[in-house]
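User: tokens in, sequence out, please.
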């Protein structure tokens, strides 16, 4: 993945979404 994705507000939103999805899937186990 390009470094552009991880920079800026879009990157932060993507990281937040992935973190939430990961936590939800992990807690549902």
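Assistant: Sequence out:
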């Amino acid at each position: 993945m390009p470094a552009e994705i991880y920079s800026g507000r879009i990157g932060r939103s993507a990281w937040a979404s992935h973190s939430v999805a990961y936590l939800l899937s992990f807690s549902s186990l």
